[in-house]
Structure formats: structure tokens, C-alpha cells
Write a structure and sequence with these properties.
The chain has 190 residues and is α+β, with helices and mostly antiparallel strands. 24% of the residues lie in helices and 34% in strands. It has helices spanning 4-19, 43-58, 117-130, and strands at residues 26-31, 34-39, 64-67, 71-74, 79-81, 85-89, 99-101, 107-111, 135-140, 145-152, 157-164, 169-171, 177-179.
């Protein structure tokens, strides 16, 4: 449990990050005491995200909607994260604004960046369970791998499934389907 002054510091950091206007194609996130600014995605990144989103959309419960690059906020733990794709309740529209409470998200989907993969593979693996996001899917076009984490316990995820491009990913409820990955593309070798 953060100390009271720690909560105030996190709230100020979140407010500051929200006041920033990154250049076009960039986004700002907050993790702990850091503001992380990342560049926009490549065409391969967007292709992979499109393939995944189409499948999730086809299995999306009627009370959820897809949202790309939505700020998921968790002031209690001082986190503001912006997944490539998330599914949130339709009722989140009533909240207005540009932020959604992180605990409302059904999943966070990330396509790892070639320039800063640690943000998705380390930082968000640490942050998303703290933010009570029940499912976290990471697609890594650098390595051609996928990882689906589930059952957050507040300090991490209790379950993890790992596979390679071409494997079927067993996505649990509320989506309940097997994600096909044969058409995902890898980033070109440097």
C-alpha cells in the first residue's frame, strides 16, 4: 500500500503526463515515477494489430467495445498505460473524457515495438496486474512469439501461455475462442 504522500506524488505525475501534448505519432504513459514516451507504430505493427482485432471483434461480448490507444488509468497505484488495443464496457462512454479506469478493461493487447520492447515485455507485465487488467496478450514480431497472461493476483499473473506465430492462442472468457496467428508478420531483421 503506497504511503499517503506517495499517492499525492503519483496523482501529480498523472496530471502532468495528461497535460503533455506529445508530437503527432507519439504517446505518453506513466509507470511508477516515470513518464514513458513512445513513437507511433510501423505498418507491420498495424497489420498484426488488425489481424488480432478482427478476431477479437468477432468474439466480443455485446456489452464490450474495442478501443485502440485508450488511456487506462489506475491512480491508486500511480499507473497510466495506453495499450495498442483494449476492450472496455460500453458504459465507459458515459464517463466521457479520454481516460478509462483500468479495472474496467477486459484485456490489454500489445504488439511489441522494435525500438522499445522492454516497455511491453517488462514494464507492462509488471503494471497490468497491479492495474487489475485480467488478460494481457503480447505479440512480439521481433521473435515471432506470443504470450497470453491471465489471472492477475495484484503482484503478477498466475497463468501464462506462450507460443509462436502460427500457433492457436486459447483466449479465455469473456472472449472464449482460439486466436489464429498464421498470418502475423515478423519485423525485418536489422
Amino acid at each position: 500500500m503506497p504511503e499517503p504522500h506517495s499517492h499525492d506524488r503519483h496523482a501529480r505525475l498523472l496530471a502532468y503526463a495528461q497535460s503533455l501534448t506529445p508530437p503527432p505519432g507519439w504517446k505518453a504513459e506513466v509507470s511508477g515515477d516515470q513518464i514513458v514516451v513512445t513513437a507511433g507504430p510501423s505498418v507491420i505493427h498495424q497489420w498484426n494489430l488488425l489481424l488480432v482485432r478482427r478476431q477479437f471483434d468477432a468474439h466480443c461480448p455485446a456489452d464490450l467495445m474495442p478501443s485502440e490507444n485508450t488511456d487506462l488509468a489506475s491512480p491508486r497505484v500511480g499507473k497510466l498505460r495506453n495499450p495498442d488495443l483494449t476492450y472496455i464496457p460500453l458504459s465507459a462512454v458515459d464517463l466521457g473524457g479520454s481516460q478509462v479506469p483500468a479495472e474496467l478493461a477486459a484485456i490489454a493487447v500489445e504488439v511489441a515495438s522494435p525500438s522499445n520492447p522492454e516497455n511491453d515485455l517488462v514494464g507492462k507485465v509488471r503494471d497490468y496486474p497491479l492495474m487489475h487488467i485480467p488478460l494481457y496478450l503480447v505479440i512480439d514480431p521481433r521473435e515471432g512469439t506470443l504470450t497470453l497472461r491471465s489471472e492477475p493476483d495484484g503482484s503478477g499473473y498466475r497463468r501464462q501461455w506462450t507460443g509462436r506465430f502460427g500457433d492457436g492462442v486459447p483466449v479465455p472468457a469473456p472472449f472464449s475462442f482460439e486466436l489464429t496467428t498464421a498470418e502475423l508478420l515478423r519485423y525485418p531483421s536489422a
